């Protein structure tokens, strides 16, 4: 094995560990932020300020009885959460998560090695990410259909409808920045916005940015569009029959997807991990991702759900035409 | 559509009768271009951002100004109203320290769930003395008749409301409910019917009269 392979494997392991930890920590942050926005305190008793609540929840999930319903298709039932978690993490392979840096010379063995910002800088980066996230719809879809539960069936039907529809909007909204940059690699997106805050694509493509955010909320199953597991209507949708670790895998997948969407929004529209004035790219990138993650929690606290028909109406009659018009205008401007 | 018309009729009647002020919500178009225009208007009129602003303001208030509504119950407790009917207490006379109960038996008589049992006898001074006094809190419905009927204010309701237990019947003896003789000075007098809670001022909220 050459150095590149070993380095890539180490990077994969580190990203897997850190992102799963952040996904777990995200549940704590979500509970706290929602609590403060609703004048509550949130988890307080396990550890200082409830920080160890994640550990308590994790222990509970690990030790819980693993129930597979009698009439469920056992194979597909146990496969579905793996699909969700796996696709969420596979998508991160083509995602830049930190600036390129060199390991300091004084460290033994690995000193002086250049660490590229991405696990696999494939030239179809964003297409790959969107494709894998689209494949992630098989998780909820199969989960709902395999569990022989009517809420699950409704949940999986909604999965198919919602994810397939909003896939279109995500693709079309990202298409306009792709036309401007002329590349599918997220590294090229980052390099195209290197010259200060004025070169961020959000100023050239504000409509695409808003469309991408809306579609991203729908893709990650976040609140204005969380019809898949809308408690008031369909109990818990596709996760109704799940418990313990399998349910936890759905959860980790959902939070990993939120991080992915936040990173894409930060890289494609908001300048990526470039240094800005005196602020280092590391800090700025983390702050941008945190902001988009926070935005998802913030919106959840502020806005109500939409009805399924309203959501379809929004997608096909408002967002998609807007995205197409945006692409046409961008194309004309690029040609001129 | 018929029921909507009917509803509008009732609204009209009520308007005449009760002089309601109806908010002008405008027309609600259902289909076509007018509906689309309304959606655009609503989407771009900063209503959504206003909602985000409210939640963000509340978060800042909660984080930095301590405006929270949480009471961390087992560690913090809200003061209860003096009229609250919790576990009974037997009070003592402040001058002599003797218990106030004169053994008249009215509480036992009036108790509608038959949970008070008492026995009395004459002591050496030919005064009534309580020899046995028990309340079965498994049966007690905390109606407060015993405290109301007591001529000496001897039995009152105290503030102990955490009375979950592992078994249904729970008996309290006279000595358990009696104020300990060394805590005589801390004995709380019944504040009287209609008395307000100690934090009543905090609980008063201004009625919103914005519209």
Major pleated sheet of chain A: 2 strands, antiparallel
Number of helices of chain B: 7
* CATH architecture name of the largest domain in chain B: 2-Layer Sandwich
CATH class of the largest domain in chain B: Alpha Beta
Poorly predicted residue ranges of chain A: none
Question: How do the helices and strands follow one another from N- to C-terminus of chain A?
Answer: HHHEEHHHHHHHHHH
Alpha carbon gyration radius of chain A:
21 Å
Briefly note the CATH topology name of the largest domain in chain B. Alpha-Beta Plaits
Strand order of the largest sheet of chain A: 1-2
N-end to C-end Cα span of chain B: 31 Å
Total beta-strand segments of chain A: 2
Give the SSE string of chain B. HHHEHEEHEEHH
What form of chain A results from the Cα inertia axes? globular
Largest interface: A-B, 16 and 18 residues
At a glance:
Chain A is 65% helix and 1% strand.
Comma- or semicolon-separated keywords:
heterodimer; A: 336 residues; two-stranded antiparallel ribbon; 1% strand; globular; B: 211 residues; alpha+beta; Alpha-Beta Plaits; 2 domains; three-stranded antiparallel beta sheet; 31% helix; elongated
Protein model, in words:
- The complex is a heterodimer of chains A (336) and B (211).
- Chain A has 336 residues and is mainly α.
- Chain A has helices spanning 3-37, 53-63, 74-90, 125-135, 138-146, 150-181, 186-192, 201-204, 206-219, 231-234, 244-269, 281-302, 308-335; strands spanning 101-102, 114-115.
- Chain A starts with a helix and ends with a helix.
- Chain B starts with a helix and ends in an 8-residue tail after the last helix.
- The longest helix of chain B has 18 residues, at 47-64.
- Chain B is 31% helix and 12% strand.
- Chain B is elongated and about 95 Å long.
- Chain B contains seven helices and five strands; from the N terminus they run αααβαββαββαα.
- The A-B interface holds A 33, 35-41, 44, 298-299, 301-303, 317-318 and B 36, 39, 48, 51-52, 54-56, 58-59, 61-63, 67-70, 72.
């Amino acid at each position: 094995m050459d150095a590149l392979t070993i380095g890539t494997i180490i990077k994969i392991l580190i990203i897997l560990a850190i992102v799963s930890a952040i996904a777990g920590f995200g549940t704590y942050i979500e509970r706290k932020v929602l609590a403060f926005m609703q004048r509550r305190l949130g988890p307080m008793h396990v550890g200082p300020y409830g920080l160890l609540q994640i550990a308590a929840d994790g222990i509970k999930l690990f030790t819980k009885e693993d129930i597979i319903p009698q009439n469920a298709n056992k194979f597909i039932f146990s496969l579905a959460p793996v699909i969700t978690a796996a696709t969420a993490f596979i998508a991160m392979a083509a995602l830049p998560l930190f600036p390129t840096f060199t390991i300091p010379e004084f460290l033994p063995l690995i000193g002086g090695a250049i660490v590229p910002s991405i696990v696999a800088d494939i030239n179809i980066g964003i297409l790959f990410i969107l494709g894998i996230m689209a494949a992630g719809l098989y998780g909820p879809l199969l989960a709902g259909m395999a569990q022989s539960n009517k809420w699950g069936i409704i949940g999986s039907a909604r999965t198919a409808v919602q994810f397939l529809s909003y896939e279109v909007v995500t693709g079309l909204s990202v298409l306009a920045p792709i036309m401007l940059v002329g590349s599918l690699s997220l590294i090229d997106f980052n390099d195209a916005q290197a010259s200060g805050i004025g070169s961020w694509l959000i100023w050239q493509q504000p409509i695409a940015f808003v469309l991408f955010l809306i579609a991203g909320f729908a893709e990650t199953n976040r609140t204005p569009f969380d019809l898949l597991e809308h408690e008031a209507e369909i109990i818990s949708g596709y996760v109704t029959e799940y418990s313990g670790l399998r349910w936890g895998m759905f959860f980790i997948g959902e939070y990993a997807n939120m991080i992915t969407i936040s990173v894409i929004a930060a890289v494609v529209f908001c300048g990526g991990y470039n240094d800005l004035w005196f602020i280092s790219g590391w800090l700025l990138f983390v702050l941008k991702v945190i902001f988009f993650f926070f935005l998802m929690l913030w919106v959840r606290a502020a806005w109500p759900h939409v009805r399924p028909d309203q959501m379809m109406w929004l997608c096909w009659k408002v967002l998609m035409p807007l995205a197409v018009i945006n692409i046409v205008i961008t194309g004309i401007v690029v040609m001129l | 559509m018929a029921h909507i018309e009917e509803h509008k009729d009732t609204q009209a009647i009520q308007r005449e009768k009760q002089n309601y002020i109806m908010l002008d919500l405008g027309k609600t178009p259902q289909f076509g271009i007018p509906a689309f225009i309304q959606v655009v208007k609503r989407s771009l009129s900063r209503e959504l951002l206003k909602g985000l602003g409210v939640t963000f303001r509340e978060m800042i208030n909660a984080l930095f100004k301590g405006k929270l509504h949480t009471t961390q119950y087992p560690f913090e407790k809200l003061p209860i109203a003096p009229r609250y009917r919790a576990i009974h207490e037997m009070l003592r006379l402040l001058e002599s320290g003797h218990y106030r109960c004169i053994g008249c038996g009215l509480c036992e008589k009036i108790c509608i769930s038959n949970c008070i049992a008492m026995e009395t006898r004459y002591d050496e001074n030919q005064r009534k003395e309580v020899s046995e006094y028990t309340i079965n809190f498994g049966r007690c419905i905390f109606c407060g008749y015993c405290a109301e009927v007591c001529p000496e204010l001897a039995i009152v309701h105290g503030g102990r409301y955490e009375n979950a237990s592992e078994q249904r019947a729970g008996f309290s003896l006279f000595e358990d409910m009696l104020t300990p003789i060394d805590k005589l000075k801390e004995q709380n007098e019944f504040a009287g019917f209609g008395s307000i809670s100690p934090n009543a001022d905090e609980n008063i909220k201004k009625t919103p009269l914005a519209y």
